[in-house]
Amino acid sequence: AQTVTQSQPEMSVQEAETVTLSCTYDTSESDYYLFWYKQPPSRQMILVIRQEAYKQQNATENRFSVNFQKAAKSFSLKISDSQLGDAAMYFCAYRRTSGGSEKLVFGKGTKLTVNP
Amino acid sequence: DGGITQSPKYLFRKEGQNVTLSCEQNLNHDAMYWYRQDPGQGLRLIYYSQIVNDFQKGDIAEGYSVSREKKESFPLTVTSAQKNPTAFYLCASSRSLTLYEQYFGPGTRLTVT
């Protein structure tokens, strides 16, 4: 079974600085998707960024970028120029592309605090 | 505005009562999902539906039931058989079951006493 591990329960960063959140996963599949979701205090899950496993290029969305290391099964999220609004729980998630791909497998999350 | 709505945001019930959580989407998505979130945990899949009149159990379906009579609606019933129903429930949808990311509604916090 696929598993997703986020080893940092909590992280903090100063406003305008850069922070990296870690995620590792375990799978025997060769093709899959990886996601980072943000859950602010409102508790709505918001998609931050998506990475297809077949793509070597790391995904980027404005201040958010990933470091995808397929061989190491690592998928970290870098937030540049951190803002107060970035404070939230961040969840890494995995999804197969083949049969049984209905499910997102989530890590337990990292709570990010942004200090002014 | 396109999106997913869940109502109500907070729901309180007495033990032994069934309760139905609403989920509506106007994104014209085929697939819909229900997840449960407990403190300190990620989300766990309860049920999912690929198309109208079809749905499948997820990892923790016991004590829950769903229906999919319309493309835009996927209500979840928490029955009295669910041992620990107090949780945060999130509904999601995607364009199809096998492709595309899932988008989430704002969630419903259910408290059963």
User: SSE order of chain A, as H and E?
Assistant: EEEEEEEEEEEE
The count of β-strands of chain A is 12
Q: Summarize the main sheet of chain B.
A: 7 strands, mixed
Mean pLDDT of chain A: 93
Q: Of all protein chain pairs, which has the greatest interface, and how many residues does each chain bring to it?
A: A-B, 24 and 28 residues
Helix content of chain A: under 10%
- Could you report the average pLDDT of chain B, rounded to the nearest whole number? 91
Oligomerization status of the protein chains? heterodimer
Q: What portion of residues of chain B belong to β-strands?
A: over 45%
> What kind of sheet is the major sheet of chain A?
6 strands, mixed
Along the chain, the helix and strand elements of chain B come as: EEEEEEEEEEE
Q: For the terminal residues of chain B, how far apart are their CA atoms?
A: 36 Å
Let me know the number of strands of chain B: 11
> What is the general shape of chain B?
globular
Query: Can you tell me the residue ranges of chain A where pLDDT is under 50 for at least 5 consecutive residues?
Result: none
Architecture overview:
The complex is a heterodimer of chains A (116) and B (113). Chain A is mainly β and 116 residues long. Helices cover 0% and strands 52% of the residues of chain A. Chain A is built from no helices and 12 strands. Chain A has strands spanning 3-5, 10-14, 19-21, 24-26, 32-39, 46-52, 60-61, 64-69, 74-79, 88-96, 105-106, 110-115. In chain A, the strands form 3 sheets. In chain A, strands 2, 5, 6, 10, 11 and 12 form a 6-stranded mixed sheet that branches. A 4-stranded antiparallel sheet of chain A has the order 3-9-8-7, with no helix packed on it. Chain A has a two-stranded antiparallel sheet with strand order 1-4. Chain B is mainly beta and 113 residues long. Helix content of chain B is 0%, strand content 46%. Chain B has no helices and 11 strands. In chain B, strands 2, 4, 5, 6, 9, 10 and 11 form a 7-stranded mixed sheet that branches. In chain B, strands 1-3-8-7 form a 4-stranded antiparallel sheet, with no helix packed on it. The mean pLDDT of chain B is 91.
